[in-house]
Amino acid sequence: KDRDEKGNKACNYLAWLIKKYNLEKQVVIGSFHYEVTKYLKRNYPYIIRGGSINEVIRFVILENLKLNALDFTDFACLQIPPTQKVCFISLKLTKKAYLKKAHKRNVSIQFWTINTKEEMQYLIDLGADVIMTDSPDVLYELLKEIGYRWKVKGKGEIMKTLKLSIIGAGSTYTPELIEGIINKKDSLPVGKLYLM
After folding, report:
1. Are 49 and 28 in contact (CB under 8 A)?
2. Ranges of residues in the chain whose predicted pLDDT is under 50
3. Contact call for residues 76 and 49 (beta carbons, < 8 A)
4. In 3D, which of 140, 154, 70, 63 has the Cα closest to residue 109?
5. Three-state DSSP class for residue 45
6. pTM (two decimals)
7. N or C terminus of the chain: which is more exposed, having fewer CB within 10 Å?
8. Looking at the DSSP assignment, which residues form a beta bridge with residue 111?
């Protein structure tokens, strides 16, 4: 989230943790700031990363201009809002063509922060890979309603619980949030909780 020296220090510490716990294939790092992304790419090329805002904008503009052959995407995912303002233009990032092009390049599309059932349904129908939400109980209920089934990789079994990630978990509201998850355990079966 931070830029300049503070952002670089965060990269160094995250890279150290990722290496220490052998998580190179399981953790994705994303930054809003292109200079932090460049630092990460230059110093830790083995770390999986999400595209910075600049890279997302370049990806979308080149797709709109049909110049995507000039896009040398080297990130694993696009962690994006449904729309992004660029100067005075609002780019709609929920176009099927963007998802199709990203998936063709093996790039995961991850939308944030989606809190209404209608928007969640729209993104599921669109083919979004990840939906980040402040309302996981709403998403879980929707997934149950539409008969969504989880598969455990390599086993073909149905997963009975959710993996839930809390971004910004160092905040003062985290204990309250965890208490809320515990209180909703019957309607929100969380099997793993990741604090980030």
Report:
1. yes
2. none
3. yes
4. 63
5. coil
6. 0.75
7. C
8. 80, 131
